[in-house]
Amino acid sequence: MSGEKRKLTIKAFNINKVELGSFTEIKDNVLKLDREYLNKIDFQNEIIKDINLKIISPDRHDQYVNNILDFIPISVKALGNLGTGITHTLTGVYLLLSCADEKGRQMAEFGSSEGILSDRVIFGRAGTPAKDDYIINFEVIVKEKYLFERKAAQSVHAACDNFLDLIREKLKNIDGRKADEIHKYEEKINPDKKKIVLVKQVAGQGAMYDNQILADEPSGFKGGRSIIDMGNMPVILSPNEYRDGAIRAMT
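RESULT FIELD:
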C-alpha cells in the first residue's frame, strides 16, 4: 500500500558511571554490575577456561587488552521485533569483547588487535566508544586446543550474550518516559517510486571470521543466523533493521 509506514523508536538512557555492586542495576545514570556474576557461572565448559570482567573508565585507556572481537552497544527490545516498535539503549557505555587462549595466543585470523587500548582504537568513530565512554571489558580465555575453531568463537559470543542479558533485563523495564534522548525513524513504502538499495558486504569465511544477523535482541547473538550457514547468500534488510542492530560482527 502506498504511503505505508514502518516505525522504530529508539530511547536512549545515558550512563555516566559504571561500578561493581552486589547486584545488577540501572539507576540515576549509574550502571551497577554484579561483582559475583562470574562466581555463579558453571565453568564445566568444554571450551571456555575462564572469564574476566573489567571496568575501564575514560581515564584508563592506557591498559592492555586482548584481541578485540567487537565493541557491542547495550540495547534491548522493549516492544516489537528488530526494526520495529521500541528499543531501549544505553549511551555512555560499551561492552568490549576480547579473547585469547590460556597460553596467551590471540583469537584472531587475519591479524590481531591486542595491546594498549588507546593505541589500538580510534575513539569516537562509528562502532567505537567515545573517549569519555565507560567500557566493560568482557575478557574470555579459551582452552588452548579450541582457539581457532569456529565453535570456540560461537561459545565466546554466547557467553558474552548471557552476561548482557542481565543488563538487558533491567534496561527493558526502565520507564521510557525517563529517556535522555528519543529518536524516531519511519520507513515509508511507496511502490510507485524508485527503489534504492545499499549493498553492504560482510565477512563469512569461517572460524571467527563470521557475522550473525537478526538475533533476538539488538546487536545480540542468540537467535541470530550465521552468514556462513546461509551460504553467504544475499540477505535483504530494511533500513530500520540495520539501525536496530540486525548485524552482529564476530571478527
